[in-house]
């Protein structure tokens, strides 16, 4: 019965996502004139899913605008941005001071746009009555490969002496990248008793069905399966819309798009694409597993963008 | 045909009329070539697949040594610092599933075949056989979710230590899936044993069971074994059931209650991500695919050999 409920839930979530995507599609008409040109985007692989989802929709509105989205990582994206090769740069962290300086030296003015929030959620089985919260240090210790089979008692002696079953998004996902960068500090993830899957539903099934399981995925996916999972507080903070948005949740972060002012002014295609991005980022972000910003934040951003054109 | 009753042609007239039609003659000549070309399509497809597999596999082995691949006991392709490409854990996963499937399917399949060929009345055979064959028509994704959402929770009642993803439950379900193959092909083999042999045995005082087990079964053994081998090859290549229900944790052990990974489900795992073209992980799926191909090819050749070698001619 429980598993049937899970199936039903997954179906509902799936159709909700689908509907969300359709909604974005429907609301996206009406710029009227057909543009052509190229827009070059590069940067974070974490933002890429949103960018790619937006791009797919955008191709239906402006088929003659060629948008290329590279995934060199936030840092690699900024390198190209500084070199003047790209119009937009995606980043899963704010721009660094030295990158700012380099941009000034290169004479490139830019504007920062927030497009969404991400709050990676760590979850355990509902029957797990020992884990309530973990520190970032615990999390790192648990997930780091050290050649041994991990047991709960390795982290806290009061926890059971049983093997931990790990469930992680696949290595191609931005969520994996974030975890790999932020929690594991680019070290290898555990290799035993771990199941990697690009399909978040598999992770939910795994964690739901196994008392000793622990897994993580995007915040939106945790929300959709909230009833079947127990979320772990990180450094004492539980991921909620508020804590993810405010950044109090340690595994939360805003996702950015940095725009080159000159491109916004002179490249009509780039301006139109950025406008489309801000108009649809909320819905697209939710659809691919992130947290949307407040409605007026997008409005404000749109006003800022309009200001760049003048 | 109606005209036949009014006029009657002599056979030689009809032959003459026909041979006058040059067009149909041309068709007669062209037909073998057309059919040859059509048959060629599947041969070329097979060749294309085999060559693609071979070329991509060779690229893989230019990066990973063949020896490590065959003898390695660790399959950690996603590790960034220290990836391992030892195929044995994946093979062990595939063999676990196949082994369980065979244990389930051979007794049930054979028993069904014996019943259908030796005991069932015509009426019940006409009723049971199609139902049995419906099993073969169920899409494997349905079997997969059947294993994950019904069989696994059911087994958990008796074995609390069973993981949600495990080898046992998909193994059993793959077994169910190949039952019709074994039952149907074995039944064909047993039905083709001439009745005179059965009657001879009965006349000597054998019971019906003795006839079935000691006379018909040995006489049909080549067909039965071939059916089992074909079913094994089907189980080795089964993809969807194991992807859904067996998990994705490659491990080399005898454990049946934990998550495993088969060769087929590894290929699925990589192809559902966007493994970049040209990465070692990308090529590894061809190497695994080639290994899989060798397994099923060996099984099919074995089936052919057995059915020829042990054939009883009547």
From TrEMBL, chain A:
UniProt family annotation:
Belongs to the PstS family.
The answer on whether this UniProt entry bears the keyword Signal reads yes
Query: Any idea which UniProt keywords this protein has?
Result: Cell membrane, Lipoprotein, Membrane, Palmitate, Phosphate transport, Signal, Transport
PROSITE patterns in the cross-refs: PROKAR_LIPOPROTEIN
Listed InterPro entries: PBP_domain, Phos-bd, Phosphate_ABC_transporter
Query: What sequence ranges are listed for the domain PBP?
Result: 33-278
Assembly and interaction partners: The complex is composed of two ATP-binding proteins (PstB), two transmembrane proteins (PstC and PstA) and a solute-binding protein (PstS).
Q: What is its biological role?
A: Involved in the system for phosphate transport across the cytoplasmic membrane. Part of the ABC transporter complex PstSACB involved in phosphate import.
**Can you say what this protein is called?**
Phosphate-binding protein
Source superkingdom: Bacteria
Instruction: Kindly give the membrane topology term recorded for this protein.
Output: Lipid-anchor
Record carries keyword Hydrolase? no
Where in or outside the cell is it found?
Answer: Cell membrane
Q: What Pfam families does UniProt report for this protein, alphabetically?
A: PBP_like_2
Signal sequence residues = 1-26
Automatic annotation (TrEMBL), chain B:
Membrane topology designation: Multi-pass membrane protein
Q: Where is the ABC transmembrane type-1 domain?
A: 91-303
The record's principal subcellular location, in a coarse class, is membrane
Pfam family, any one: BPD_transp_1
Source taxonomy lineage? Bacteria, Bacillati, Bacillota, Bacilli, Bacillales
User: What does the UniProt entry say about where the protein is found?
Assistant: Cell membrane; Membrane
Purpose:
Part of the binding-protein-dependent transport system for phosphate; probably responsible for the translocation of the substrate across the membrane.
List residues traversing the bilayer.
Answer: 30-55, 97-119, 131-155, 167-190, 211-232, 281-303
Similarity-based family: Belongs to the binding-protein-dependent transport system permease family. CysTW subfamily.
Q: Which PANTHER family match?
A: PHOSPHATE TRANSPORT SYSTEM PERMEASE, PHOSPHATE TRANSPORT SYSTEM PERMEASE PROTEIN
NCBIfam families found in the cross-reference section: phosphate_pstC (TIGR02138)
Sorted alphabetically, the keyword list is: Cell membrane, Membrane, Phosphate transport, Transmembrane, Transmembrane helix, Transport
Which CDD domains would you find in this protein's record?
Answer: TM_PBP2
| Name recorded for this polypeptide | Phosphate transport system permease protein
């Amino acid at each position: 019965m429980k598993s049937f409920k899970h199936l039903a839930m997954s179906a509902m979530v799936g159709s909700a996502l689908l509907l969300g995507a359709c909604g974005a599609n429907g609301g996206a008409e009406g710029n009227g004139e057909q543009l052509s040109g190229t827009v070059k985007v590069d940067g974070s692989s974490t933002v890429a899913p949103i960018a790619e989802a937006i791009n797919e929709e955008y191709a239906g509105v402006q088929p003659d605008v060629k948008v290329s989205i590279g995934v060199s990582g936030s840092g690699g994206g900024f390198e190209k941005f500084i070199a003047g090769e790209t119009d937009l740069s995606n980043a899963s962290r704010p721009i660094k001071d030295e990158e700012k300086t380099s941009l000034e030296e290169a004479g490139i003015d830019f504007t920062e746009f927030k497009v969404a929030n991400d709050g990676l959620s760590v979850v355990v089985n509902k029957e797990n009555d020992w884990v309530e919260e973990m520190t970032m240090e615990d999390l790192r210790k648990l997930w780091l490969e050290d050649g041994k089979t991990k047991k709960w008692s390795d982290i806290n002696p009061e926890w059971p002496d049983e093997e931990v079953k790990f469930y992680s998004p696949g290595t191609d996902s931005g969520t994996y990248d974030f975890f790999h960068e932020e929690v594991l500090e680019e070290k290898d993830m555990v290799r035993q008793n771990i199941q990697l899957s690009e399909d978040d539903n598999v992770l939910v099934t795994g964690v739901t069905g196994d008392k000793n399981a622990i897994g993580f995925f995007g915040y939106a996916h945790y929300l959709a399966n909230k009833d079947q999972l127990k979320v772990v507080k990180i450094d004492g903070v539980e991921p909620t819309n508020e804590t993810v948005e405010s950044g109090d949740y340690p595994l939360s972060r805003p996702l950015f798009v940095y725009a080159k002012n000159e491109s916004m002014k002179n490249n009509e295609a780039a301006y139109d694409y950025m406008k489309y991005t801000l108009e649809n980022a909320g819905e697209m972000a939710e659809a691919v597993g992130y947290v949307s910003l407040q409605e007026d934040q997008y409005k404000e951003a749109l006003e800022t963008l309009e200001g760049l054109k003048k | 045909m109606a005209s036949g009753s009014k006029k009657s042609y002599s056979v030689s007239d009809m032959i003459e009329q026909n041979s006058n039609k040059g067009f149909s003659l041309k068709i007669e000549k062209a037909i073998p070539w057309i059919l040859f070309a059509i048959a060629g399509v599947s041969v070329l497809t097979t060749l294309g697949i085999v060559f693609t597999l071979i070329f991509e596999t060779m690229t893989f082995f230019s990066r990973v040594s063949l020896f490590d691949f065959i003898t390695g006991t660790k399959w950690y392709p996603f590790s960034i610092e220290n990836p391992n490409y030892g195929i044995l854990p994946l093979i062990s996963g595939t063999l676990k599933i196949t082994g369980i499937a065979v244990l389930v399917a051979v007794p049930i399949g054979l028993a069904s075949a014996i019943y259908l060929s030796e005991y069932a009345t015509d009426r019940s055979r006409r009723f049971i056989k199609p139902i049995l064959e419906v099993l073969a028509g169920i899409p494997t994704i349905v079997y997969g979710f059947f294993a994950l959402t019904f069989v696994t929770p059911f087994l958990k009642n008796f074995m609390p230590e069973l993981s949600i993803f495990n080898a046992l439950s998909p193994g059993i379900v793959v077994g169910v899936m190949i039952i019709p193959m074994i039952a149907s092909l074995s039944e064909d083999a047993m039905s083709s044993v001439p009745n005179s042999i059965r009657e001879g045995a009965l006349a000597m005082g054998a019971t019906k069971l003795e006839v079935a087990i000691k006379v018909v079964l040995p006489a049909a053994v080549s067909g039965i074994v071939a059916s089992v081998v074909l079913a094994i090859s089907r189980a080795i290549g089964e993809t969807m059931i194991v992807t859904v229900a067996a998990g994705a944790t490659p491990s080399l052990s005898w454990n049946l209650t934990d998550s495993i990974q088969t060769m087929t489900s590894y290929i699925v795992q990589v192809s559902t991500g966007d493994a970049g073209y040209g990465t070692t992980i990308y090529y590894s799926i061809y190497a695994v695919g080639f290994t899989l191909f060798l397994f099923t090819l060996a099984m099919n050749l074995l089936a052919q050999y057995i059915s020829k070698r042990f054939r009883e001619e009547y």
